[in-house]
């Protein structure tokens, strides 16, 4: 995955990734540019990123 802003939803204190269409993702990236430079809190990573729409190769059917 390329470095870019992503969207999460917080429900009961747990973060869930939000699936965006390509158009929605492009709009999010344009919106983020308004807030540049973003302050990334590198000391608190939330985990490794994967594309849930494409799968990560670890699915069990």
Structure overview:
This protein is α+β, with helices and mostly antiparallel strands. It is 20% helix and 13% strand. The chain has a two-stranded antiparallel sheet. Strand 1 and strand 2 form a beta hairpin.
Q: Structural class of the secondary structure composition?
A: alpha+beta
H and E string? EEH
End-to-end separation in angstroms reads 25 Å
Form type = globular
Topology (elements, then pairings):
Layout: E1 8-11, E2 14-17, H1 22-33
Antiparallel strand pairs: 1-2
Describe the structure concisely:
By secondary structure, this protein is α+β, with helices and mostly antiparallel strands.
Keywords:
single chain, 61 residues, alpha+beta, two-stranded antiparallel sheet
């Amino acid at each position: 995955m390329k470095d870019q802003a992503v969207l999460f939803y917080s429900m009961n204190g747990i973060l869930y990734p939000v699936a965006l269409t390509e158009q929605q993702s492009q709009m999010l990236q344009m919106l983020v540019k308004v807030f540049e430079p973003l302050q990334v809190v590198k000391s608190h990573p939330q985990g490794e990123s994967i594309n849930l729409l494409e799968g990560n190769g670890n699915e069990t059917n």
